[in-house]
Amino acid sequence: MRLGISLPSDSFPLQRTCLESAGYGRLIASELDLGPIWLKRDDDPKEMKRRFTNTTVRNAIAADDDALATIYQDLYERTIDFGAHPNEKGVLTNVIKESVGTKILQFYMLAGDGPPLQYALRACAQIGICSLRIFNLVFNEQFEKHDFTHRIGLVSKPF
Questions:
Q1: How far apart are CA 1 and CA 105, in angstroms?
Q2: Please, which contacts does 3-7 make with residues 24 or more away whose CB atoms are closer than 8 Å?
Q3: Average pLDDT value over all residues in the chain
Q4: How far apart are CA 16 and CA 119, in angstroms?
Q5: Distance CA 21, CA 131 (A)
Q6: Does residue 65 contact residue 137 with C-beta atoms inside 8 Å?
Q7: CB 79, CB 15: distance < 8 Å
Q8: d(Cα 72, Cα 24) in Å, to the nearest integer?
Q9: Where are the domains of the chain?
Q10: Per-residue model confidence as pLDDT tens digits over 69-110
Q11: What distances in angstroms separate CA 42 from CA 47, 72, 149, one per listed residue?
């Protein structure tokens, strides 16, 4: 959230990392033999890349909650679209409109209140909620001790 407040487009790589961390946690919990592969990723990078793909993560989530897997995938793709991979949306979101077509292209370096900031903050909240829901698939007993399902339902309503 702190990065999203000051540099909205720069927050999307970190948002993607948040989703992937939750997704990898779910994948490893569903296939315990993946834990050592992940921990020793440098021993066999090809095996790591083969076993840890966005598709295998999404399928691990879908095994318990297909709707959550769809939300995960949509959010994952949006992080890529808005800057987790360098592309026009991640860069052009911060271009000062009046500078287009001039000899000097200008960019906003710090966020002001506007659509890019609002979108990035909303995405941060959505990704946080999605990630917590994924971790609930792994640590359900611990989460339910804190009334997670009810509480996450309340905070999710605006999103």
A1: 28
A2: 4/117, 4/120, 4/121, 4/123, 4/124, 5/111, 5/117, 5/121, 6/110, 6/111, 7/109, 7/110, 7/111
A3: 90
A4: 15
A5: 8
A6: yes
A7: yes
A8: 12
A9: 2-156
A10: 999 999 999 999 887 777 777 667 777 889 989 999 887 766
A11: 10, 27, 38
